[in-house]
Each structure stands twice: as C-alpha cells, then as structure tokens.
Design goal:
Blueprint: H1 14-19, E1 21-26, H2 33-38, E2 42-47, E3 53-56, H3 62-81, H4 94-114
Antiparallel strand pairs: 1-2, 2-3
Length: 122
C-alpha cells in the first residue's frame, strides 16, 4: 500500500470508477452545428454508490465527453470523500488571559459591593 498524501481514501481509480457508473447519452445542444445537435454525443454519468451525477457536452465526440465526465466525477468524489484533519486546539495568549482575569476581578468587586453593610462590623 503506497502512502501517497494526495490520494483520498474511498475514491476509486478511473478504471474501477467505470464499473461503478451508469452511462447515458443524449443529444447535446448549442453551438457546433448539425454534427453536434443531431448526434448523441453528450454523456451523463451517475455514480451508483453515492448518487452523484455529472454531465459533459463540451466536445462533439462522445468518447472525449465520456473521458471528461469521468474526470469530473473523480474530482467530485474526491471532494465528497475528503475529510479535514482534526483541529489542534491552541492556547489562549497572555493578553487574553490577562483581560479575562481583570474581567473576573471586576465582577467579584461588583458582587462585594452589593452586600449590605453590617453595623456591628465597625
């Protein structure tokens, strides 16, 4: 097993990905003329395990669109399976600790001043 940090766990390679998708083709539209509008060159891929759907109608070639769609699907799956590393908590800085200590002292002073004066205390 290689320890490549760029590989996200759970994302299959392109050959395995081809076995996990449902491929459907449809007529593309837009600029490109009759060759694009009359042929079934657009490709829609659905990744069955996750339900992610990608389409490609960039080229007039169905094979090129299939390759583009597979690459898009691989990127989407990498983002889907990506997990951020756990965050390491940091210590509070000394100015923050000093300010918090001063705030606590102010609060305690307020509470001390709220107490009624005891006449036998003098």
């Amino acid at each position: 097993m290689s320890e490549d940090k760029n590989v996200t766990t759970g994302v299959p390679d392109l050959e395995q990905l081809e076995t996990e998708v449902e491929v459907s083709v449809y007529q593309a539209s837009g600029p490109g003329g009759q060759h694009r509008n009359r042929t079934y060159s657009a490709v829609r891929l659905k990744h069955v395990p996750t339900g992610i759907v990608v389409t490609a109608a960039d080229s007039r070639s169905q094979l090129r669109n299939r390759k583009i769609a597979l690459e898009r699907l691989a990127r989407r799956l990498a983002a889907y399976y990506h997990e951020d590393p756990p965050r390491k908590p940091t210590k509070k800085g000394s100015p923050v600790r000093r300010r918090e200590r001063q705030d606590r002292e102010k609060e305690s002073q307020k509470k001390r001043l709220r107490k009624p004066v005891d006449p036998t205390d003098s």
